[in-house]
Amino acid sequence: MCLCVGWMGEKCERGCPKGFYGPMCSKKCDLCNGISWADSNAACDPITGACKCERGYKGPDCKQRVCDEDMYGLDCSKQCTCIMENTESCAPDTGYCRCKPGYAGDSCERICSKLFWGKDCANTCECNYNVTSECDLTSGRCVCLPGRTGAQCVYFL
User: Fold this and answer.
1) Do 84 and 97 reside in the same domain of the chain?
2) Residues 122 and 115 sit within 8 Å (Cβ to Cβ)
3) 41-94 residue pLDDT tens
4) Quick check: is 111 in a domain?
């Protein structure tokens, strides 16, 4: 087994997971300016543990994009293909479209069918369409027909 800094695995074939660094990724990174590693654009150097921003972001909290919202690439010269009104963000380094809940597709061009909801339409609606008019595409809540109430719309008003 190899002992590698910034890498892990028997043959040092896997990079450190987010928030770890050092020999065999055994050290936990300190918070970067108080930012959580889990849901941010901040990263820690896999060798030194120093705080840095992910590629395409800058600023003390790593929230400021290097490129405009609809552009990406090393020199910000590529146009994002995302349908921006359906999109949370276009990744400044790859152009990957992160869709708003209720939308899916490479460009966030697809609205969820009435049977699905949420991020990338990955959740199944639990609504009974005999007593509901629709499933909310962002929350999954059943929208009751007139005269009905309750989470599953099974109660009469």
Assistant:
1) yes
2) no
3) 788 888 888 888 877 888 877 888 888 989 998 888 999 999 999 999 999 989
4) no
Closest CA to 82 of 59, 113, 110: 110
Q: Judge whether 32 lies within some domain.
A: yes
CB-CB contact of 46 with 17 (8 Å): no
d(CA 15, CA 93): 19
The answer to whether the predicted template modeling score (pTM) of the entire model surpasses 0.85 is: no
Whether pLDDT at 32 is above 80: no
What do you get for the CA distance between the two ends of the chain, in Å? 68
Does 112 fall in a domain?
no
Does 80 lie in the same domain as 60? Answer: no
Tell me: do 53 and 77 sit in the same domain. no
Contact partners, residue 123, CB within 8 Å, separation at least 6: 116, 117, 140
> CA 137 to CA 75: how far, in whole Å?
36
Domain that holds residue 135: 123-156
* 41/108 Cα distance (integer angstroms): 21
